[in-house]
Amino acid sequence: MTDQPVFLLGQGLQALEVSGFETEAEFQELLARHPRVLDFGTLADGRPLRLVLVAREMGVATSAESGSAYWLDHLFVDAEGVPTLVEVKRATDTRIRREVVGQMLDYAANGARYWPAALLQHSFEETCKADGRDLAEAYGELLDERSPGDFWALVEERLAAGQMRLLFVADRIPLELRAIVEFLNRQMRHTDVYAVELTQYRGAGELTVLVPRVYGEVATAAKSPSGQQRSAPRTREELEAALERRCTPEVRRVAKALLDHAQERGRLVGGTARYPSMNLHYQASGQWVPVGTLSLYDGAAAGELAFSFGSITKRLGREAVARFADALPPVGELGKKLAVQRESGFNGWPGVSLSALAVDPGIVEHVIQAIEQLVDR
Q: What sign results for the dihedral spanned by CA atoms 113, 117, 119, 123?
């Protein structure tokens, strides 16, 4: 079926015909200047989602020692600190079918490891400067009562936890890409994946109409009853209420011990995924370190404690995380996962079920001692 025009009523009837983007650079520039065409959904407090550009051609490193190996087309962020990674392709580019998916996953995986808060803040402020935008005005859309440092630390934490959006944008989305996007959205717990088809219509003179169509929302709707991933952080009370409903007294005891220790010695940062979760942060070497995440999933092995080895390595170094891994009890499947991490460079999220930690009262104390050794070094 050929592309049909749209019609504009005014001093008569004007037909606007589908018009592709002449170059990918033109397409990218349009998104950088008008990110509202990618705004869909709302924040937790009901405000409309408003994406703010952090950088175009955001460099992506593949190791702590290397420079940028790849460049993401656009990195945006919203007022909840959720990063949005955007890759743009025209329909005439055959990479839009499958290759672009591998590219995006590369960017997401390595951005989560190698985009520290300071780099994100610098990139945003340099973008504002280059665009001639007042920095105070730009921050006014993002900060609420937070400082810039706190905001970018939150963005870094979201990245490390995989709490992000991945957007594939094209003037035509092929069926192959739609299928991949919907599959990824069903499988990924923390990350939302969308394909945005942005059709351009042109009329007489400079008249241009942009019509976005979003794919992947059906798969996202399956993630939560509301049809949207939460943006408001969970509270400890919400997590404990879920534990009370779904877990045994032994598992609840383990969770309480971990939460109490983090609250007394560090801080708790609520997760934003559809399932209840709480991030355990501790101060070490003068900085906040996300040590792990306590999550309550669906299913039999509902509760899990996952250790943020990538974040620990980034902040405290490989020797520190290696000692931490050696100090953890190899219960359940954790022993095998720790062995894999030793071989792969300590950049993953090895986890252990709360039920495995609840087998013996001494196991959770062993974990807490390992955390104390890590942060008190």
A: positive
Q: What is the mean pLDDT of residues 49-65?
A: 87
Supply the pLDDT for residue 280: 93
pLDDT per position as a tens digit, 147-190:
788 788 888 888 888 889 999 988 888 888 888 988 888 888 78
Gap between the Cα atoms of 127 and 177, Å rounded: 30
Q: Burial of 256 by CB count in 10 Å (0-12 exposed, 13-18 middle, 19+ buried)? A: middle
The tokens of 145 are what? 């009562």
CA torsion sign for 359, 263, 289, 306 is: positive
Find the angle CA(108)-CA(114)-CA(119) to the nearest 5 degrees.
110
Pair type for strands 165-170 and 208-215:
unpaired
Instruction: State the Cα–Cα distance between residues 157 and 269, nearest whole angstrom.
Output: 9
Q: Give the per-residue SS3 of the chain.
A: CCCCCEEEEECEEEEEEECCCCCHHHHHHHHHHCHHHHCCCECCCCCECCCEEEEEEEEEECCCCCCEEEEEEEEEECCCCCEEEEEEECCCCHHHCCHHHHHHHHHHHHHHHHCCHHHHHHHHHHHHHHHCCCHHHHHHCCCCCCCHHHHHHHHHHHHHCCCCEEEEEECCCCHHHHHHHHHHHHHCCCCEEEEEEEEEEECCCCCEEEEEEEECHHHHHCCCCCCCCCCCCCCHHHHHHHHHHHCCHHHHHHHHHHHHHHHHHEEEEECCCCCCEEEEEEEECCEEEEEEEEEECCCCCCEEEEECHHHHHHHHCHHHHHHHHHHCCCCCCHHHHHHHHHHHCCCCCCEEEHHHHCCCHHHHHHHHHHHHHHHCC
The predicted-structure confidence for 66-93, as pLDDT tens digits, reads as follows 788 889 999 999 888 889 999 988 766 6
Q: Which of 49-58, 265-274, 334-343 has the lowest mean pLDDT?
A: 265-274
Q: Is the pTM of this model over 0.85?
A: no
Name the residue among 373, 264, 357, 245 with its Cα closest to residue 316. Answer: 373
CA pair distance 8, 345, nearest whole angstrom: 58
pLDDT computed for residue 273 by the predictor: 62
- For residue 273, the cross-strand partners are none
**Do residues 98 and 181 touch, judged by C-beta distance below 8 A?**
no
